[in-house]
Structures are given as structure tokens and as C-alpha cells.
């Protein structure tokens, strides 16, 4: 990993943990990996996470990941891009925050390509 914030070839990486052991990595096809944030919820039929990251200097990206059968899934079309900065995840139905996520954990980091 470098420390050059003008390296827009890096990508956000979401790591799925099972009892502290990495079991899967998902690399976002977009985003620059420098300003990523991850918000996860466990209520509803499937636990899910929203990854928000910058997309260059003047845009933001949001991608949704779902935990299905112990694996991260990224449904086709489960993303949004805005031509502005400052996107954030909002809970519109008061879901409780993820705590353990069915004995799984997720984290976000950056890959340098």
C-alpha cells in the first residue's frame, strides 16, 4: 500500500471475518479506496452492508453487499454514483446496528493496484 492519495487505481476492499479469521475479500470495481466507509445492518431477511467511497475528486459511490450463506454477494445494479461529495448511509427504518453479524465481521481497507 502506498500513501499517494492521487493513486486512483487503488480500490476499496471489504474483508469478511468468521470468528476473527478472514474467509473472503471483495474488491470494489469502482471507488478509489481512500475515503471508504462501511455501514452494516443485521435485521431483515439478509444482513447487508453499504460501502461508500470517493470516486475521484468530485463524485461518490455507494455499493451494497449482502451476506448470503456466509459469503458476501454484490447484486447486479446494487450501486449508486453521485456527481457530488458527501454521500452517507442512512437508516430509514431504524434497523439495529450490526453486532457480530451472525458471528461474522466485515471491515474495509484499500488495495493498491
For the report, how would you describe the main beta sheet? Answer: 5 strands, antiparallel
Helix and strand string, N-terminal first?
EEEEEEEE
Structure classification = mainly beta
Whole-angstrom Rg: 14 Å
Number of helical runs? Answer: 0
Report the helical percentage: under 10%
Number of strands: 8
Low-pLDDT stretches are 98-105
Separation of the first and last Cα atoms: 9 Å
Outline type: globular
Beta-strand portion reads over 45%
- Mean pLDDT, to the nearest integer, reads 75
Total count of domains:
1
Provide a descriptive summary of the structure in words:
The chain is mostly beta strands and 113 residues long. It has one domain (11-111). The chain has no helices and eight strands. It has strands spanning 11-18, 21-27, 37-41, 48-54, 60-68, 71-73, 79-82, 104-111. Strands 3, 4, 5, 6 and 7 form a five-stranded antiparallel beta sheet that branches. The model is unreliable at 98-105 (pLDDT under 50).
